[in-house]
Fold each of these.
Amino acid sequence: QVQLVESGGGLVEAGGSLSASCAASGFTFDIFTMGWLRQVPGKEREVVAVISPKGGLVYYADSVKGRFTISRDNDKNTLDLQMDNLQPEDTAVYYCAEMQWSGGDGRYSYADYWGQGIQVTVSS
């Protein structure tokens, strides 16, 4: 079955950087769109970044564009998220997800499966 296991995240001061990684198994990784979601308690889960199966197309939410970088290694079945210039509003649980690309630029992409999530906390 699909397994997505996140690692990384943690606590950082505003302006700092963190990274997150996801190990995927149980499906043919290199034919699926992948992405990162995040959720704050009491709010809906939101799409942060999405990457196409071969990595040629990426989408970033406006709130993270220019600060976050999504990448994948299809040989290792891993998905990464580099988060720079983090701000307190980036504080959330971040989830790795197997997704469906939707919308010309990916902005309507949605998740089929996601992992357990990791905490990212940014202090002001």
Note: The chain has a mean pLDDT of 96.
Amino acid sequence: QVQLVESGGGLVQPGGSLRLSCATSGFTFSNYAMNWYRQAPGKSRELGAYISVGGGISNYADSVRGRFTISRDNAKNTVYLQMNSLKPEDTAMYYCDTRWTTLGRNYHYWGQGTQVTVSS
């Protein structure tokens, strides 16, 4: 059974930092790219960051580039999102996500999310 469990969210002041973690199980973590998405109230879910299988390639949304860093530890089956210089507009539910296609069938998994609130 595939499981993704996010943690590390909370309330932080503007300019502060948080580190999100996503612990996974039930699949071969080291074989798949991982994503962090976020969804603010009343808005659609948006991709925040992507990391490749080995961690050598990462991409970021323009809104977070230069402030957020995605990383992974394949030995711990965990992906991280280091968030610095947080802004009120970063307030959202953050989800880790993975997807793949096997034998023509699409698989898509995500966790329950962790809430990040940036406010003074």
Note: Residues 38 and 94 are 4 Å apart (CA to CA).
